């Protein structure tokens, strides 16, 4: 009976303290708008038990879709990421997968602005010729110009009221741990 009580208490403690990998960027990271192809984002996380896979996701917080796998088998707790220049403007989030514990977590959403450069080329050609009697005159003029324009849209602010649940496993684990501790207490009293 005592062994069962100790086993249940240990299981409850392990369940209550179990947390998975999570991003650790602060709120100002997610309040900033970033430009694709220009900005370098410093992704940080902790509580991973092995190498992680980082993914870029897009869409509503309740329906994220994969944009790209950023990197696999990342060791440590940080990674510098430069979004590709061809990404469209929108709301994005990161997914992190812990290869050892098989736990997955998501970041809050952030705004990404598309980066672009356009080249405008114009050529103007004009010619004139005259050929009356015995003398002949001919003239030709060609102008060519190339103009390169960099453009980017002004930063926009997007407010999202739905955020992916961070550490959702620990939210479930705590009430369950309390129930197990209560059960262990009842077994001890009997």
UniProtKB/TrEMBL annotation:
<feature type="domain" description="Yeast cell wall synthesis Kre9/Knh1-like N-terminal">
    <location>
        <begin position="33"/>
        <end position="112"/>
    </location>
</feature>
<protein>
    <recommendedName>
        <fullName>Yeast cell wall synthesis Kre9/Knh1-like N-terminal domain-containing protein</fullName>
    </recommendedName>
</protein>
<dbReference type="InterPro" id="IPR052982">
    <property type="entry name" value="SRP1/TIP1-like"/>
</dbReference>
<feature type="signal peptide">
    <location>
        <begin position="1"/>
        <end position="18"/>
    </location>
</feature>
<dbReference type="InterPro" id="IPR018466">
    <property type="entry name" value="Kre9/Knh1-like_N"/>
</dbReference>
<feature type="region of interest" description="Disordered">
    <location>
        <begin position="123"/>
        <end position="165"/>
    </location>
</feature>
<feature type="compositionally biased region" description="Low complexity">
    <location>
        <begin position="123"/>
        <end position="162"/>
    </location>
</feature>
<dbReference type="Pfam" id="PF10342">
    <property type="entry name" value="Kre9_KNH"/>
</dbReference>
<keyword id="KW-0732">Signal</keyword>
